[in-house]
């Protein structure tokens, strides 16, 4: 009897059942019976995250631009308001914001000096008025005495309000005006009003 030889061949995988895989790009290409292929990438999930980050970055840039634009508009409004408060001699021929700021500093120093001078004049005037015998109420002989109030007015000058009475110790308006001139004050206006048989005088003066 002829000898029977048995050969065992290794199994050859069916190409249709094998799932090819790209070793470099890590793409899996499953194939179905229709011949259609579907591409799947292991990096596909990361692409969506990058798009979201880009969108958030653009939104932040737009918000930053809006905030910066609003800040510049507000600063421009404040600079315009400040410029309108300054006298013309501090802004004439000056367009730069830095020049306006320097003018503002100079104007503030001028106002501080003026306030100090007026305060000194006010105090000196009070001393002079007190030395002339100003008092309140009535004297022992029944004469109505004069009273005076000295304070700084809203426009930076000195305002004197006196109520003249009658009697030997009463101070007249002319004497008060003379005292103001002696203290270096210029009388701008004087308004007199009759009150309770006497006169009340409001005198506006400036340095």
From TrEMBL:
GO terms for molecular function: DNA-binding transcription factor activity, RNA polymerase II-specific; protein dimerization activity; RNA polymerase II transcription regulatory region sequence-specific DNA binding. Its main location: nucleus. It comes from the Eukaryota. The keyword NADP does not apply. Pfam families: HLH. GO terms for cellular component: RNA polymerase II transcription regulator complex. Keywords: DNA-binding, Nucleus, Transcription, Transcription regulation. SUPFAM superfamilies: HLH, helix-loop-helix DNA-binding domain. Residues 38-59 are annotated as: Disordered. Homodimer. This is BHLH domain-containing protein. It comes from Gossypium raimondii.
């Amino acid at each position: 009897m002829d000898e029977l030889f048995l050969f065992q061949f290794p199994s050859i995988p069916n190409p249709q059942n094998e799932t090819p895989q790209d070793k470099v790009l890590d793409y899996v290409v499953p194939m179905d019976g229709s011949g259609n292929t579907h591409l799947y990438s292991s990096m596909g999930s990361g692409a969506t995250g990058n798009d979201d980050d880009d969108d958030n970055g653009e939104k932040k840039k737009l918000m930053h631009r809006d905030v910066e634009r609003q800040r510049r508009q507000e600063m421009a409004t404040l600079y315009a308001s400040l410029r309108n408060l300054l006298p013309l001699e501090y802004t004439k021929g000056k367009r730069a914001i830095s020049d306006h700021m320097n003018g503002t500093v100079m104007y503030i120093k001028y106002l501080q000096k003026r306030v100090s001078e007026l305060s000194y004049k006010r105090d000196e005037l009070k001393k002079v008025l007190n030395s002339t015998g100003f008092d309140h109420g009535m004297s022992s002989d029944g004469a109505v005495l004069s009273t005076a109030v000295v304070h700084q007015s809203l426009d930076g000058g000195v305002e004197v309000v006196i109520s003249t009475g009658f009697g030997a110790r009463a101070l007249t308006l002319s004497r008060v005006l003379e005292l103001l001139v002696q203290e270096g004050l210029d009388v701008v206006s004087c308004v007199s009003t009759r009150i309770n048989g006497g006169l009340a005088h409001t005198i506006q003066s400036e340095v």
